[in-house]
Design a protein that fits this description.
It contains two helices and three strands. By secondary structure, the chain is α+β, with helices and mostly antiparallel strands. It has one domain. The N and C termini lie far apart (about 45 Å).
Length: about 60
């Protein structure tokens, strides 16, 4: 699966920590970041998750 291409389409960016040779995937509008071998996959899975069905979080039912 091309995780990097899909995550880039959702706005995720990559940064490299040269001190530890670590890849960090981050999103400019979200305060989330991932690192490690499956960082791109975690970013994609967060981006395509289903919206919450919890009634308190939905705006449609509010007067």
């Amino acid at each position: 699966m091309p995780w990097k291409i899909i995550a880039s389409a959702f706005g995720w960016k990559a940064a490299h920590d040269d001190d530890e040779a670590l890849l960090v995937v981050w999103h400019p509008k979200l305060r989330r970041h991932y690192s490690g071998a499956d960082a791109w996959k975690q970013a994609v899975l967060l981006s395509i998750r289903s919206p919450s069905a919890h009634p308190a979080l939905r705006r449609e039912g509010r007067p």
